[in-house]
Amino acid sequence: MNVNTQTQNLPNNLPSSLGLYDNGHFSSKIKTKPEPVSFSSLQTFVEKESFLCKLKFTDFDADFEFEIFNVEGSLESNEIVLSLSLDKQASVKVSLEGYWKQLKPNIEPNFHITNFRMKLYEKLETPISMFLNSTLWSMLGLSSGFIIEFPSLNNYNLSSSFEMPIDEVSKILQERQIAYRLLVIESATGIKLPFPHGFIDGKDIENILFCYKAIVERNFNWFASSTTIYWDANEVSLSWFPETKKPTSVTFRPESITKSIFGVDVPIGILTVKINTAVIDNYDEAKEKLSRLDNESVNIQQRSIDGTITMISVEVPQLPKNPWSEKLQKLIDLDTKLDEKILEKYFNLASSTLDGLTEVQKEEITKRPELDEEAFDF
Amino acid sequence: MPIINAPSDTPLVIDTDIFSHLRNRQKYVEENIRNHFSNTKQFPAITAITVFEAIQGVESELNKSKISNEQADIFRQRINELIQKHQVLSLNQRASEIAAFIFPRLSKSNRHKHWRDMFIISIALAHNFGLVTQNKRDAELIASLLPDDMFLRLAVWAT
Q: Which of B41, B51, B88 best probes binding to A when mutated, by most A CB atoms within 10 angstroms?
């Protein structure tokens, strides 16, 4: 049996090609510069087997810790390039641009930083990689500043900030939300899911949302102007069939539901469909076929008069208690703060369109245009 | 009535009144946008009709010499910057077809009152968006004239 609940009709409006941070370097404004670093210190730093770089976001009270796995730089170059790995889920290239300056003869030259850039080098097509990446880049885009610190390089650190348009950050937050929902589905079902780069189909977004709601909300409303179910003609099916064709509240018998997410079948479990005001458009035909009790598949065309159905999870896996590491939980908990930051910028931008006007002027400038009544005289 | 309450995850388009109230920092709009953003991580969309209405507000004031050219430049720039942050839904062929169905079914006085909202609703439907309005009655009037198989997903944000 198959319950077709694929009717949410969400627009395909998630541009998953978050090009800005995928393809571009982010140039940041350096707010406080570190003390110049000597070449020998840099050499010692490079020769160490394992060393870290910390990104501290004071606005969010959160840090990211990267492992530095490659450093490129020489006295002939005006750039030191660091390759960083974030929990082996993403690679970031940090470029420190500047110049070497020798103050006195016999004293080794020091590197003076003038510019700082970051670029996403590689991310894996997994929910956890996408979640970490989108969290990092949304924080970069929304924080008023951050500190980058190299503890084993004489505590070399600088503070910086990025400018990122809020509509771009909103796309990154959409990606982060999808990645989180996929993590929830993975954790509850035990099924590993991909998160492919590139355009995300609206159907995938819809199926992710359906599975996520079934796991987390358990009972949820779903948009469905019409729903088709297929029942085998037998006594059990007949007993579940409504007695009247008048609009009525109908709870259909529990069905096993499988959704496809990025080409992976996810058997989400057993759910019931409840329609508060249901009509069966082919009532007579369906009842007659079910009454034959011949185990043939019968197509039942049901419709919700108010356009919604309620999905009720009967046997759907649940999220385990404490499913995330402490570190990951801390990043998940940033959701509200990220929303607050972006919306503050959005509301300020919206109100700037009326800045400096009196209340009367505001009313005038936002007054809706009128056409003469004769304009519609046809 | 071919109207359903827009489920919380529905991408929404705001009508021009709500857009104006957003620009006026009305708390009820900000509160509802917070809820919407929490569910969808999207700012609400606007329609091409709202873009027209918002920009013509500036041009109208300039035309009546109530603001100077310099002021008009500043307001144009600010409103354009705000518009750019939104997904702007166009009056495409589908939207035009829906509007063409509704328009002749409106009375002459209702055409005069509701022509802008009729286009906004048609655009919302054509792009599969839910509509946010303050005025449920007007939306119901227009939605009551929709073809039988069409539902308007509606969210009413009120003060």
A: B41
